[in-house]
Amino acid sequence: MLFAVSTPSLILCRSGRQVRRAFSSSISEIIPRLYLGEASVAFDKPMMQRFGITHVLCCAEELFPQFPQDFKYLKVPMHNSLGSDAFPIFYKSKEFIDSGMKDGNVFVHWYV
Question: The CATH number of the domain where 27 resides is what?
Fold first, then answer.
């Protein structure tokens, strides 16, 4: 089931410069307790709380955790290019997702 919510958000990279302004956020439940969506959702604490998110897997090198006191994070160094080798991070990500699904709901996002 796809959920779309209109939320103006400002996404900042580690240096503090604006990298994207998103005017809508979407989050999809892939399987029970596992959600996939846009990076803008990870900047919307009330939305993540509404969906019961407890763990956030950030697959974007450019972004960083916004609410580390409220959610558990795993940041994996994915590059947004066709030549990116994602294999080394699969096991670490799978363990994080499995653990998160036992404790609550997991949200996976990237930055494009």
Answer: 3.90.190.10
